[in-house]
Amino acid sequence: MSEREMFSDSDGTKLNLGHLKVWFTSGMGFFTDAYDLFIIGIVLILLEGSYGTSFQVGTGNGNVLVGAGLLASSAIVAAIFGQLVFGRLADIFGRKKVYGLAAAILASGALLSAFATSYWMLFAFRFLLGFGIGGDYPISATIMSEYSNKKDRGKMLAFVFANQGIGSVAAVLVGLFAVTVLPAELAWRFMLGAGAIPAAAVIYLRTKLPETPRYSALVNSDSTAANRAMNVVSPGAEIGVVAKTSVHTFSTFISNYWRTLIVTAGSWFILDMAFYGTGIYSGAFTGAILPSTTLFDRIFLAGMPFFAGFFGYFTAVALMDRVGRKPLQIFGFVMMFVVYTAVAAVLETSGSNVTGFLIPPYLALALYSLSFFFIDMGPNTTTFVVPAELYPVKYRATGHGISAASGKVGAAVTTFAFAALSASIGIKPLLIILAVTSLAGAGLSLLLKETKNLSLEEASEDRLVEEDPPSPSTTGNESVKSSTEL
Description:
single chain; mainly alpha; Growth Hormone, Chain: A; two-stranded antiparallel ribbon; 73% helix; globular; disordered C terminus
């Protein structure tokens, strides 16, 4: 039996309620991830000192810009460590054993942030939150990919990630609600604490989800557990036998996949420079286009691009298995370049200040919001999907974690720097920088391997090899050799 045949039952099954159960269990983490990462942008508006809050954003020397940059980037920096640590742990100990832990850390960090009494306490709790957020990336992506059928795998992975769009919109809506009904002193705490609810809601489900079929069969050599997992999405399916991946050491993984890592990690780095820089500081960009003095209007305008991005996520869901990952990623990067260049071209500036537009301001805001649509339709989704497919089962979460961590490095750089840069050089040069980096992302994506309609073993070129026959006291299953050389 070849690797294609081993998982033919689950690869060939139609999309069903079992897949949706895995999607919900995985997707709630991404809802929380997006909510918690982007709510801080709204919280920073409240804590800048203009709305009567006693909490100080400054780092002790009164430097609000430095304090805001550190606070906004704390969760993102922590996410880098979470992605690397949990990605590796998920490959060593299994996806199931660490899945609930990531959600518990995430929920704890969000809840504790609401009760912070000092700047550095809030910084520490946001760091804890970010560690949990980072852990969720490689585990959720790997679990969804290893439970999905071949035909709909891209769609289901994109659907998991689309919860980020829902979480981003939820952050805007919760922010608007909080500032409408609560005093500023309580509103920001309510915003941060609400992020704990969805993560806490899926901790139980994550502990009950069986280990994935491929990890059970190809790493644990447990066909009984593999069959049980396959039945979550394909009732009556059987794997029958077990085999081993030929990529069995970390040095082998690096030597065989270093080129792939450069492409997936590099494109994610470039993407997140734009996505998090413009996302967390959306208020600075939209405020430069349409200045507003009321708190409600500032939050509403800052949230407008996220509503455009919302539709981008679900466009990616619809197109992922039809058009393919590579074309979507390249097209998205190219359109980011076009939109950033166009917005910069219509801005009239004096020094670092925006003084006017060559088109009506509302059209400028609409044009800027289009960048979020193309980001989410293209590379923001594809950079999450592809690493869950291109790496072998024993290092799938590791490869995804490395790629995601590279993205968060780019996010941390821009999140920390954008507050100061927007004040010193202005919005227009920032848009030009983002346009150039987007074009570089399109060029790097030309090297990406297309994974549409391939099994995970074909996509990752994961060759399976014969095991020594097990003794009756172990699994009781016969081992066979794969006949497919990829």
